Amino acid sequence: MRIILLIALGGGLGSVxxxxxxxxxxxxxxxxxxxxxxxxxxxxxxxxxxFLGYLEKNHITNPDLKFFLVTGFCGGYTTFSTFSNENVxxxxxxxxxxAFLYIGLSVILGLAATYAGLxxxxx
Length: 123
What we know:
Elements: H1 2-28, H2 35-57, H3 63-77, H4 80-92, H5 96-122
């Protein structure tokens, strides 16, 4: 039960931070591209690398922190379902180029951000 509560708490916090990220991005960026979800997903990829690298570097083996930060917070902060829905909407609006750009950048920069987070955390 403790693990479920840790994941729920982390997931709730991650979801709130995703909402706040979206509000901030949407306030400052007015172009037609799903920047809010894109930003949250790329930052989430960086954070998962950062958290996992930090836990590994510092030999933190207690699974509670990993459940809270990685499964909970990063799981709540990032959103594959919204990413998928936004791409379907782009395709339905015949914005084929934008959809493929969004998909390609998300995958490439997501992987790069995870790797960067690992490298930063390992110093």
